[in-house]
Amino acid sequence: MAEAMALRVPDRVPVMCQMSIGHMLLQTGFPPSEFWFTAEIFAEGLLRLREIYGFDGILVSLHGHPPGWTRDVLSIERDEAGEVVRWKNGDRTVFPADDLPLHVPARATPRPEIAAVDPEAIPDRISFIPVSQGLLFRLAPDRLYDAVDIVRARAGEAFSVHGEITSPFDYFLNLAGFREGFLALVDAPDRSRAILERYSEGLSDLARGLCGRGIDALKISSPYAGAGFISPAFYRKFVLPYEARIAAAARAAGVLAYTHTCGAVHDRLELMAEAGVAGIECLDPPPLGTVELADAKRRVGNRLFIKGNLDPVHVLLQGTEADVEREARRALETGKPGGGYILSTACSVAPRTPRRNLQVLAQAAEEWGRRPPA
Fold this sequence. Notes:
The chain is α/β, with parallel strands linked by helices. The protein is built from 15 helices and 13 strands. β4 (92-96) and β5 (102-104) form a beta hairpin.
């Protein structure tokens, strides 16, 4: 992994996929609420899955798990479909056995209008991770790096450990909501940039903390920054400067950063490189996205490592082992020359992806990803 991320030619192309929470739950069998909230169980699941699939690295996507979370629980109802957790404050969280939780607050909190938000009123310390619209993962301030510490200690130097920071753009959209957030980029651009700047300060501090825990790379998760959401011009204004701050914080700590953006990014590969990151994923191929691996390799492969491009839906989820093997070989033949390629699904492994299909990737790398003998 280290050789590939440094744009050198490794002995073998490394393999590492990001997995959905649903896939992790189905493959490990842990109770969903415990997997979500308990650092030790979450870390154990990540380590177990890495071993099952023979990956060369692992992404610790959640950290800062709240200790003693069960003290706030009124009841937990369990059946084959998952769990329903009722909280003492009246909230309710539904934990499917194969997907992200759905949190239902007892009282809805109205979202603010961006034009009325005082950026200085946004706390300078990041206290949550916006997992999806309305779903937050609250960070325990005294356990900020818990799962990372556990995985790093147990992994030793055997494989690469990556931390994750969510893009300031996601925090901005979480604050306003999708509709109002995207409209605010047009109607209140200066206030939007001031809010993004405020979030980037806190996230840079969080990134520095993660980098201090011995991670090998830092992923900047930016799923809403593709062409399906904003233009290249808006990307330059509202995404690039703030992700660049986080990448600079990681570099100053001696850690490589890379950007994760889903969907259509063929029109902004060079822009993504301008953020000062060392690599990019997902490189979704058609029909999920718009990136052809050979084109990405030609355009930015001499500046950035490239991770992904295997279709996680039509190939990994719905395809046969032979389909996966064929597409993995194609990706290896395209990505391997000159180094700097990591074999991976484009976006996350879908919940019900067959285990055997994912295991084919490490075998394919062994067969077709080896460096030719000198």
